[in-house]
Amino acid sequence: MSSLGPEPWKAPWWKAAKGDAPTLYFILTIHVLALIGLVFFPTPGWRVVVSTVVLAWIGGLGVTVCYHRSLAHTALRLHPVVKHLLIFFAMFNGSGSPDSWTANHRQHHSKVETPEDISSPAIGGFWWAHLRWLWQAGKIPLDRWCPDLNRPEYRIWNRLQIPLLAVSLFGGLLFGIPAFFWLGPMRLVVSLHAQCFVNSIAHMREGREAGDDSSQNVTWLAPLHFFQGENWHHNHHAKPSSARLGWRLWQIDFGWYAIVLLETLGLATSVKRVSRQERASL
Q1: Torsion over CA of 162, 163, 165 and 169, rounded to 10 degrees?
Q2: Which among 70, 115, 223, 266 has most CB atoms closer than 10 A?
Q3: Is 127 exposed, middle or buried (0-12, 13-18, 19+ CB in 10 A)?
Q4: Can you give the residue ranges of every domain in the chain?
Q5: CA angle in degrees (0–180, nearest 5) for 163-164-166
Q6: Is the distance from CB of 65 to CB of 91 less than 8 angstroms?
Q7: Among positive and negative, which fits the CA dihedral 161, 130, 104, 187?
Q8: Could you give the CA distance from residue 88 to residue 14 in angstroms, rounded to a whole number?
Q9: pLDDT at residue 31, rounded to an integer
C-alpha cells in the first residue's frame, strides 16, 4: 500500500509516496528543461535531431521487446547479450530498472480495473494513470510479482540506474547546448509520455460497460511509439502471452519485426505466436 493511504489518487499531485520524491523531482526537472530547449533551440540541426530519434527509437525497442514482451510476459527468450543491451537502452530512455518495470506491469494485468491496479484511469482518472502513479502509488513487492528477476544479472541494473540517468540527461553537453536539450530532457519527456499513454489513453475505451475490458487500439499513437506496436493495446490485453501486438497487416509493429529478425538470427527463441484463427476470434 502507498504511504499516502489506500486511495493515493485522492492526495494532492505534489505529494510523493515514501521514497518516491526523487521520481517526482526528476519528472518535473526534465519537463522544465524540455520546455526551455523547445523555446530556445527549436531547430538544433539535422544531426542532433537524427541522433535524438535514433536513441529514442532504440530505447523504445528496449521497452517493448525486452521489458514488455520478454521479461513481463515471457512471450520470447532473448540471447543474454541482446537482452542486456536492450535493458541498457530502455534504462537510458528513462524507463526504470527491469525488475520494477516488470513487477508494475504484471500487477497491472493481474488487477486491471480494480483499486489494486497500479495505473488504472477508471480508478484514479487520466492524470493518475498517465503520470501520478509513478510517484504516488508506492513500490510494490518485487518478491511477489517478479521473483524470477531476483538474480544478480538484473539487480545490478538497480545500482546503475542513477549514473545511467545522469549520463542520459547531461551527456548531450559534450556536443553543445542544443544537443543537451534535445538528446537529454526533450528526448526523455517524449519517451516518457509515449509510454504513459499506454496506461492512460489506451485504457479509456468509450462506451464500455462496468467490468468490460477497457483497453483499446489507438491508431494515432503509432507515430509517437515509432510504430513499434505498443499502441495496439487491445490486442495485447486479448492475448498477453503473444509476442506480436499488431495482428493485422496494416497494424505496423516494428517490435514484432525486430523479434522475427532476432529469431532468424538465433538471438530470440521460444517466441509465442497467436494463430490466424485465434486472432480472428478475439
Answers
A1: 130
A2: 70
A3: middle
A4: 8-216
A5: 65
A6: no
A7: negative
A8: 30
A9: 98
Beta strand pairing status for 77-78 and 268-269?
A: antiparallel
Q: Which pLDDT tens digit goes with each residue over 53-96? A: 999 999 999 999 999 999 999 999 999 999 999 999 999 999 99
Q: Which residues pair with 269 in a beta bridge?
A: 77
What percentage of the chain exceeds 70 in pLDDT?
97
Tracing cell 490466424 back to the chain, one arrives at 276
pLDDT in the model for residue 196: 96
- Beta-carbon contacts of 237 under 8 Å, excluding residues fewer than 6 positions away, are 109, 112, 213, 215
Residue with cell 521497452: 63
Amino acid making up residue 169: L
d(C-alpha 146, C-alpha 108), whole Å = 13
The grid cell for 266 is: 538465433
Tens-digit pLDDT profile for residues 107-164: 999 988 788 888 889 889 999 999 999 999 999 899 999 999 999 999 999 999 999 9
Which stretches of 97-177 are assigned E, i.e. beta strand?
none
Please say whether the beta carbons of 186 and 53 come within 8 A.
Answer: no
Q: Where are the alpha helices (DSSP H) in 72-203?
A: 80-92, 98-110, 121-124, 126-127, 133-136, 142-145, 152-170, 177-181, 187-199
